[in-house]
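Z., the sequence and structure:
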Amino acid sequence: MRILIDRDSRNPLYEQVKGALQRLIVDGVLNPGDELPASRILARDLSLNRGTITAAYDELVADGLLYRHVGRGTFVANRDQLTSVLGTARPGNRAAAGSIRWAELYANDPLKDQDPLSPQIARWAQRDGMISFAGGVPDSSLFPTDEFRLALNRALKEEGPRLLMYGTTAGHRPFIEFLRHYLVERGVGATPDEILIVNGSQQGIDLIARTLVAPGDSILVEDPTYYGALNLFRTLRARIIPVPVDDHGLNVDALERILTHERPKFLYTMPTFQNPTGVSMSLERRRRLVRLCADRNLPVLEDDFDGDLLYDGDNIPPLKGLPEGRDVIYTGTFSKMLFPGIRLGWVVAPAQVIERLAAAKQAADLSTSLLFQAAMVRFAQGKRLQRHAAEVCAEYRKRRDALLVVLQKEMPEGVHWTKPAGGFSLVVKLPPGMDSAEVLTHAADLGVIYQPGRVFSLSGEKGLLRLSFGNSKVDQINEGVRRLAKAVRDEIHRNQKASGRRLAVAGAPPV
């Protein structure tokens, strides 16, 4: 079985392996029932990461060309299944079923070469017994679903079919009024014409970027940063410039140096419980940041996606809440503290900016659900929202504390991590020379997964990994870190053995 890999190609390696195997099946080189090499063996033969081979196998299984037999291996599907999938595209006829050349249509898709690890991680997460630190999501078992159902019923009873019609693009006025008071508690004041209701903060970031950025324009982002924003900016064909993050958030000194030779369209930052690191920017640094950006006429997009989840210390005002932060564009959401599925978020910005963003939103999806906005107003009455926030913060604090304790107990020497005062995530830094993507494949075999650094780091920092603890119980956190620590120790031992072999070869006398 011959598979050629072009490492200079723009096509991802896993797609090259998948395409080669599919051609071997179509051409009859691989026949129904043939066993494929184990992923570890094929990865070794092709000098590839095992995760690359696993990703190719997984997609071919999903396409119906391969099947897995637990405990035995991976095999080519039976003849009937191949005929069902490929039609007449069997030996002697290479024309695939259908006539549209899809690859040509999406040849210019800016995300077509995205890292195959993200879909692979999603597939691993579905395995029985897998402990996942990969998704920065809340725990659905903490959702007050019965109370929210009552709020939905009240909204329908009191406002009726009107809530099932299209709404105004700006948002449901009662929800905007509720939100104004809610934001004051976060330190942000706004008039109604300075607020736009959006379908989650992700849509807010999308509308802002599409309004301000043309292909080739530059955007400043923290490094590391939220990979959802990175992918969004890539779809706009923007030039993404990293600004380093340290233990106190975005490095303003580094930003100032960058601005001496760059003219970006805006800066994207998460000053509170930054994703993925969990670190927060000090008040002094926040003030310096907004003053610097105002002096350079640089818009700031502040993503306050989990600012309500504070576990230690005092609340620090968002950039938007500072006297110097009047022109900051501020996005927020209930997705981390409450229900991600209702997709309620907001943008706060100067009125003239909101007017342009509303026009962009109207072109995209007209409006955000009136029903969910009306239900949220009713749910929040009687301080139910504040009580829920206190309850989930107490629970997530326990999980954060458990994670910090078990990391200290289990991780080998040379491994370090951030210590967030809130939010869902922290970053672990492995010893020099280690690649978290390589460790991930072994960790998945041991039953634990995470987000590797190459997904969220623009500078290519391979030794980072993100652990998100929001959706894991304390016992899962403890067991998951034990599995992860074993994977890290095994990788350290493997590297030491490999280094020893290289030294032995280098020091061997000539034969």
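The chain has three domains: 13-124, 132-141+387-505, 145-383. The CA atoms of residues 409 and 482 lie 9 Å apart.

Let me know what you think.
H.
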